[in-house]
Specification:
single chain; about 180 residues; alpha+beta; 3 helices; 7 strands; COP23
Length: about 180
Amino acid sequence: MKLPNFCIRTIIALATLGINVQPGFSQTEKGANRPNQVTFFCQQLYDPTSGEKVPMTVVWVPEREAHVRLIAWKSQAFGKNWTPQKRCDVVSSKFQKFYQSGQLNYLTVGRIKTRSQKGNITEKQVICAVQEAQGICDDQNQLFTIKDEEKNNIEKADDVLNSLVDLLYQGGNAGPIWQ
């Protein structure tokens, strides 16, 4: 994995999000409010494949005067307790928390051991916000778990991370990551 390259690109991307970090406030689903600080929230996105709306993590970047669509949550692979809407809500809150605390400086791929619904210990690939270039993922800095069908493919995990950094840096030219 090219961690230093990801870290440098992440620093550049996050630097464009703004220097002054102030507590955010709730954003309506339609994005009608436009706060003067970076704000992560959930919004609905139309999925032409299914013909349904899916929850999506979005970030408002006041310096760009634009919303950046980050992650569309569609996978049902996490069981009934982790619906796409719940994943969107939790992950959007984590992005906001890590951004406000200054912890969203470096993004990396890692593995977290979890207990499955059947009680088995499994490893899941995750994207984490670490405080230094060689930081390690843990349950305190985990942003989100990569959907199961991609969990054993480290190249795919790197692609997800690369796409996330590109979205933060380029402002959404490629569209959201589908999870």
